[in-house]
Prior knowledge:
Two copies of one chain form a homodimer.
Chain A: H1 5-13, H2 34-58, E1 62-69, H3 75-83, E2 91-95, H4 101-104, H5 110-114, E3 122-126, H6 131-138, H7 144-163, E4 166-174, H8 177-189, H9 199-206, H10 208-221, E5 229-233, H11 237-255
Parallel strand pairs in A: 1-3, 1-4, 2-3, 4-5
Amino acid sequence: MKKNRQLFESLDSVRDKPILAQIDPSSVWGIKDREDAEDRLEKATRELSDLQYRLYAEAKTGLLLIFQAMDTGGKDGVIRKVLGPLNPQGVEVTSFKRPTPDELAHDYLWRIHSRVPARGKIGVFNRSHYEDVLVPRVHKLAPKEELNCRYRQINDFERHLGENGVILLKFYLHISKDEQKRRLKERLDKPEKNWKFEPADLAERELWDKYREAYQAIMEKCSSPHAPWYVIPSNRKWFRDIAVAEIIRRELNRINPSLPKAKEGLRDLKVK
Amino acid sequence: MKKNRQLFESLDSVRDKPILAQIDPSSVWGIKDREDAEDRLEKATRELSDLQYRLYAEAKTGLLLIFQAMDTGGKDGVIRKVLGPLNPQGVEVTSFKRPTPDELAHDYLWRIHSRVPARGKIGVFNRSHYEDVLVPRVHKLAPKEELNCRYRQINDFERHLGENGVILLKFYLHISKDEQKRRLKERLDKPEKNWKFEPADLAERELWDKYREAYQAIMEKCSSPHAPWYVIPSNRKWFRDIAVAEIIRRELNRINPSLPKAKEGLRDLKVK
């Protein structure tokens, strides 16, 4: 763990109400290069598998991982690379898309709450309720009072989850505007990436600064010790992956789930 | 409505943190007798049907009715009598039983939130999240701090619903211990009521005073202007029914849902 000291020190130093403008999206805090990152990731995911097994067997705590980012920020990628190696029986990924009519007919946390992981499971949110304070702000769909009301509702909701056995980790995958340009161009230029290109993404890119402001507000309003935001410099995908993996590994080690005790009298049983 | 003045004045006078011990379960505030009650109920449910139709068409507001009571208090009866006449397409009744393993693996509000009515619908809860502060207190399954934490979580949750288009009315059906005795005996004596008798109810009856205290605490901790508790004297079923019907009618009239405007150009269309 000693070799991770610089990584964690850097990650933790920007955890409490981070200032996005001051964080270089190309940072690789304490990780040498791609090879170093990949070596570490292999070891980290092996340990994550063991930790997940114990979390599942103990069935006391749920772990909820929330991923938010600008378009092309790498949510799909980090989920595949870090959580892909885990036993899918214990991992539930939910991609929140544009709300359905039935979802719109309910309060915005209704569909979110329904997908919160059970004790023993790891829930992964690809987008989340943070879209409901992001898009309305950027597109001016809600007055400021309503947004403030939602920040409070979200804090209440996350506190309730924390008090009821669900641990939350929130990741903002932090890329630069130039890096987004490069990735969008790649989606246009490479046939096998064409399917990911949405013309609407170009319009959203025009609103880069507004989105940045909206994320900044989210981190100021909705960071708390029991549900912190981690800003992950994500211009380099290999750094993004190992940083997220290490944070999850640290948290699961902190929870330190243990296998339930063998049932009474088990030693005396014989299988015939 | 003038003839209901005494009824509403009495109901409203005990609405804000009511003291159960001071409310006579045999009260019939302003209602003359069974015949008077039944006449009024017929009129009230006719108007309720019209109001529900408009609520459904407007699809802006959800109405959530929560029913709690001691055993035999009459939850099933009042739901059948008052809400039975409404169009079932707009009414969703949920009876919360002992939690399933999947429900127990989540926070206690998980199953509750999933059943909150959509805008335009009337949701009816036969028992509710209040069981989760009632039973643990009576059976000493949770320390006081955890109960206090839950009262706060419930208030946060109900406020969130209120701020997101769901109006809550909470009904406590108030019967006397003698009336419960009479009703339990009836369940034992009448063959067609035998199926409702649970031997466990007798053990719970022994805990009458503890349940009463627990309800008193709920009303002190979880009454708020946007989600009030109504104590309904319920020894007389006919009074219970008309009192609940009138409260729902008054609330729907306050919401005053209106049919959406005809679509542009509708007048010029011809059906051939």
